[in-house]
Amino acid sequence: MKPFTEQIDEILRLETGADACSASPAALYSAVSRAAMERLRPQWKREPGKKRACYFSAEFLVGRLVHANLFNLGLLDECNRYLLERGVDPAVFEQIEDDALGNGGLGRLAACFLDSAASMGVPLDGYGIRYRYGLFRQHFENGFQMETPDNWLRFGDPWSVRRDDESVLVTFSDQTVRAVPYDMPAIGYGGGMVNTLRLWQSEAPDGEGFDFALFNEQKYSEAVRLRDEAEAISAVLYPNDDTPAGKRLRLKQQYFFSSASLQSLLRDYTARHGDDFSHFADEYAIQLNDTHPVVSIPELLRILMSDYLLSFDESFAVVQRTFAYTNHTIMAEALEKWDVGLFCSVIPQVYPYIVMLDDALGRALKARGITGAGRGRYRIIDGEMIHMAHMAIFASHSVNGVAKIHTEILKNTALPEWFALYPDRFNNKTNGITPRRWLALCNPELSSLITERIGSGWITDLDALEKLAPYAGDPTALDAFLRVKRQKKEQLCAFIEAREGVRLRPDFMFDVQIKRLHEYKRQLLNAFSILDFYFGIQDGRIRDFTPTVFLFGAKAAPGYYRAKAIIKFINEVARLVNSDPAMRECMKVLFVQNYNVSYAEKLIPAADISEQISTAGTEASGTGNMKFMLNGAVTLGTLDGANIEIVERAGVENNYIFGATVGEIAALDGRYNPRALYESDMRIRRAVDTLIDGTLDDGRTGMFRELYSALLDGASWHAPDCYFLLHDFIPYCDTRLRANRDYADRAAFAKKCLLNVAHAGPFSSDRTVAEYARGIWGCL
Ligand SMILES: *Cc1c(COP(=O)(O)O)cnc(C)c1O
Fold first, then answer.
1. CA angle 187, 190, 195 (to 5 degrees)
2. Pfam families from the entry (predicted)?
């Protein structure tokens, strides 16, 4: 094969007639990506006869592909040299949009799993939707979030291969569409395996275009209408995170990719086995990433029974052996349910199979003596609602949570009756992150520091980081670590100045909270605590404050009014603090715009403090927490989700834990009185009152007053301060201030950071995927 760089030149010449110096960034991106695609082609094939796992997910938040793919192929250095030699800044590809086909943690987890599986030789393919527009782009106007469409295909899509020959039809009550797969290579590190991410695009069935020979205005508009209606299904990602969107189009999306993916597996399977389905579950394991793809369960049942004439019992056995379900949330409002009427108006052909499942569940319960009222709590069809999680638990062989505490809450609090029924079905798979993107690629400086001391084995065996622990007592290593941290801060400051027009000080401590904006994640608590510091410094109550940059990054779902109010509030806090000359040497507050994977890759390596402050019992796992740990930040957090496992590994003494535990929150049940706290504590009152006393301006929207009454009065659908901000406020501020003071001893603080890195091994998604492959999929 021709050298990589010659291939790039050749593609550029053929496509644009230009060379690298004069080519546009888009042309360069396309040529580099396509040259790389050429090279991986021989490895991009499936091993026959081996069981494959299929990850069904409505979201894959892969981020920017070009660097990660070149890195895993071992071509990144060569590419950067090639660009430099031709006078092109290797940062040129930072203009390429992220593939933001996901909202947050759940979608990013799917992307990390693909990287890990391919790197470890686990045959795992992803199946999802090729949204025309991913998660919206965000900017601020006068401190308010504004949304614009995410046109991620602007620079083309050179990492996908359209497979017309593999398209299938998907039928709804009111339309039939063609699902066309776009296959992306999921590339393993170091020339490992190349698996496939298959994303389906919805098109009109006769995609061949209109018959102009028979041109007729009426037929033409009819064809255009059908095309638009077909394309609407994969047009846009629902910008919701942890709240369901009970919308017709959302259900269509779910059925669209579920049905298309199953049809593609069955086409492949029946080509080899005809209609003998006895081997199906030995050849495919399907992991359902939350309830979004759970409609796959009745759909497979339907196909087996109606197309292949299997009995219910035979079909159910295949279904149950094939599917496994991952639960991602315990928040009651996020457990997906579909209205029977709506469901039947969209996919009436599937509904009878849900009725059969509900009946089978009734029989299974009866056999165990559970009847009458006892049965009620289990129902799949409950009155007018279809309960997707119940269907998933009943019809699959494995149900997992995503962190130890989350799985315990599922078993004991959220789904105890199901756990009593099927104790063996429940298991835990603590989330992880890929060390390729989240250390090797985003922090080459820290990577070198590590590799110089313990070798490069950590890239595929993250537990090797343990060998760093002895260096936590080595002043030279700690100095080197601090130099790297400083360098990453300088790089981030330059990036932020260019992007946001704000100048930050790299000599400050960096305190970072980046994640979707949600009340349970408590960005508002963070803002209140900044105000408490601000007032405390003004009053002289707080002295010797280590100068700190407080950074936020988050998108709010466009219809989530309170989340948008919190963004506005934090931007107003930033305006107050940053415009006060007395604060110039003390603190700076900034909410960055359009937080996404690529931004995370810049923010995380520069952080000293990782803010993980969700109300105990609300964050299933979190993965942002792991990315910070791996890059040498300490966690300032509650005992929630994977924070618990993080401090178990890295030591409480090397992190900053505060606030009510899950047990303490439960014990408050019905007895929590936030107004009493507000009235008795001056500091709480002063921070909370900024919502209404004119200190901060919400542009006369009434947004801030609404936040205020949510905390003190509640609303028709929730109790006052249902995320316990005021309860945790003082412990949070005190612990945060302790971290702020500890930071002044740079060596002691660096030691904590380095020990976090040293103990981050268990949070590699390589470990997580190996557990799924061994424990659930049976393909490792
Ligand atoms: C990792 C990641 C998340 C998840 O962050 P949490 O803190 O676990 O909620 C969300 N968005 C992006 C872009 C990420 O990279």
1. 20
2. Phosphorylase
Structural contact between residues 180 and 167, judged by C-beta atoms closer than 8 angstroms: yes
Which residue's CA is the closest to the ligand 1 atom numbered 11? Answer: 104
Measured from the Cα of 623, ligand 1's closest atom is 8
- Span 164-172, average pLDDT: 97
Asked if 413 is an active-site residue, the reply is no
pLDDT at 415: 94
Average pLDDT over residues 75-99: 94
- For ligand 1, atom 10: residue with the closest CA: 104
Domain 444-763 sits in CATH 3.40.50.2000:
yes
Among residues 75, 55, 58, 57, which one has the least CA distance to residue 1? 75
Nearest CA to ligand 1 atom 6: 624
pLDDT digits (tens, 9 = 90+) for 98-107: 999 999 999 9
Known catalytic membership, residue 751? no
Q: How far is the CA of 623 from the centre of ligand 1 (A)?
A: 6
How many A from CA of 656 to the centre of ligand 1? 20
The band of 725, judged by pLDDT with boundaries at 50, 70 and 90, is very high
* 596 Cα nearest atom in ligand 1: 13
Give the whole-angstrom CA distance, residue 592 versus residue 495. Answer: 11
289 bridge partner residues? 326
Domains 44-63+98-431+770-776 and 444-763 share a fold: yes
Q: Which two tokens stand for residue 608?
A: 């000293």
For residue 635, report the distance from its CA to the centre of ligand 1, in Å: 15
| 515 a catalytic residue | yes
Whole-number pLDDT of residue 192: 74
Confidence class for position 285, pLDDT limits 50, 70, 90: very high
Residues comprising the chain, all counted: 780
Q: For ligand 1, atom 8, name the residue with the nearest CA.
A: 622
For range 270-279, the mean pLDDT: 96
* Domain positions in the chain: 44-63+98-431+770-776, 444-763
- Quote the pLDDT of residue 211: 59
Could you give the maximum distance between any two Cα atoms of the chain, in Å?
A: 83
Phi, psi (5° rounding) for residue 74? 75, 25
Asked if 555 and 102 touch (Cβ cutoff 8 Å), the reply is no
pLDDT at residue 141 above 60?
Answer: yes
Single out the catalytic residue among 329, 434, 623, 690: 623
Q: Which residue has the tokens 């003390």?
A: 586
Select 44-63+98-431+770-776's CATH number: 3.40.50.2000, 3.30.1330.60, 3.40.630.30, 3.40.50.720.
Answer: 3.40.50.2000
